[in-house]
Amino acid sequence: MLPFLSTAIWLALTVVAEIAPAPYLRTPSSRQLAWHQLEYYAFIHFGPNTFTNEEWGRSQSTPDVFNPTALDTDQWAKGLADAGMTGMILTAKHHDGMALWDTNTTTYKIGNGKWAKDRVANGLSADVVRLAAASAQKYGIKFGIYLSPWDIHRDPAMPKPNLTGTIYDEPQIFGDNTTGDYNDLYARQLTEVVKLKYDNGSQVPLFELWLDGASGSDTVQTFDWARFRDIIRENQPDAVMWGHQGVDARWVGNEDGYTVSTNWHTISRTQDQTHYEGEELQTGVRDGLYWTPAEADARIRDGWFWHASEKPKSPDALMKMYMECVGRSVSLLLDVPPDTTGQIAKEDLEMLQQFKKQRDAFLNRPLLTPDLNVSASSVRGGQNNMQFGPANVLDDNTDTYWAMDDNQTTGFLEIHLDGVYSIDAIILQEHIALGQRVGGYLVDAGVDGAYSRIINGTSLGYKRIWNLTTSVEANDIRLQILQANATPLIQSVQALGSKQK
């Protein structure tokens, strides 16, 4: 025992240490836990496809095609921040293979085009990736990078008649049976973007690296994922690595911004193993081998890149999308592509703003406050143990939670309101820092002790937002845990609505 601790304090700390719940199976890393909390951020698809009206860049135009007339990355970042988004991920290199940063790995980069040369001649930067990173920092949002593993420019199966005989006619090294090492090229490109620096020389922190698994070619290329992972971990240890099924985050199984009601944050395969089908990725694997939560990538328009013929989705459609992914414990990555001016279209930003107003109007009506009386069927270490008491679900602290003893996997808590309220939504959070445990729960609304069922759920996880089909009156709310694979840890309970009397 340390000499400066009294016996009473030492005993108290010992008891706390003994009753603290142990982690259950897989748990999120610190970078994954921070990523969960971002919830809603932007994809920025921008490159030669913007100007050729393509999605995959099969035309293989020269860099001169990249010609934004009024590039403004500050406009991107400010518009996204104003819309309540927490970050943006830019396509530094899409499938077409043209690099948007000043790379030494290829001649096929925007820096070799007329637009970039004119900017540099006028003392302006033409490195779009660095410009976007600086704008994200300026407006207080996170920055991430998409770097396509498939590279049409280096794929021998993809024709390139526009580039024959030019400086862009580079060796076709994509594929296991080609002369050359594409993995080495990709590793060098990856190293450049993860070592990206601001003008002041400090490193740009990346919150996510998006390594798309899509390919429209029959060419077989075995990627050296272990090498790529080491480059990311060494240079950007706080960055989440996204892939079809990991390492850190997985595809949700569709590109439409929704998932099914049951969603587990774990799966049991790595990115080197046979790919799960879309339906399997939506659900995940309960008690899987790896903490690999889902991210829903979706589009504000029909395509990923800007096309003049398309219109943005309505605020109602975006709200439905939000509820069917963020409301089901899945992060939303919403694509908002700049147009040929190099700015996000005003109509897109207007839809994002209207969506924010609708979202805020729905979410900013909390009814439950820390001063309310909360009771529970049992409390870890005894009913008087405030460390794990049921009142913790109302304190808005991500480090506290209600817990029962280890041998208890079912139980309930009741929140007693200070009047009768009209409730139309319930938000629940599990304390996922110690694992995902809950597999079945109910929520009941009561008036003077008479309860009615309003929610019947399965998985819980990071956050569930239940929008009730009809509002109910209540002065009591009861959460019942029907099934959990370890003692449940409930971090937060919130109800939305208005006071009646």
Overview of the structural elements:
By secondary structure, the protein is an alpha/beta fold. It has 2 domains: 30-363, TIM Barrel (Alpha-Beta Barrel); 373-499, Galactose-binding domain-like (Jelly Rolls, Sandwich). It is built from 11 helices and 17 strands. The chain has helices at residues 7-19, 30-36, 48-52, 73-82, 114-121, 128-138, 182-194, 225-235, 278-283, 315-325, 346-363; strands spanning 40-44, 87-93, 142-147, 208-210, 240-242, 250-251, 266-267, 290-291, 294-299, 331-335, 373-376, 402-403, 411-430, 438-447, 450-457, 464-484, 489-499. The strands form 3 sheets. An 8-stranded parallel beta sheet has the order 5-4-3-2-1-10-9-6, sandwiched between helices. Helix 4 packs parallel to helix 6 (128-138) and helix 10 crosses helix 11. It is elongated. Residues 355-498 form the F5/8 type C domain. It is an enzyme of class 3 (hydrolase).
Structure keywords:
single chain; 501 residues; alpha/beta; TIM Barrel; Jelly Rolls; 17 strands; elongated; EC 3.2.1.51; alpha-L-fucosidase; Glyco_hydro_29
Q: Helix count, per DSSP?
A: 11
CATH third-tier fold name of the largest domain: TIM Barrel
Helix-residue proportion: 10-25%
Q: Any guess at the CATH architecture of the largest domain?
A: Alpha-Beta Barrel
Number of domains: 2
Kindly report the oligomeric state of this protein: single chain
Strand content: 15-25%
Intertermini distance: 56 Å
Main-sheet strand order equals: 5-4-3-2-1-10-9-6
EC number: 3.2.1.51
Family: Belongs to the glycosyl hydrolase 29 family.
Keywords: Glycosidase, Hydrolase, Signal
GO molecular function, one term: alpha-L-fucosidase activity
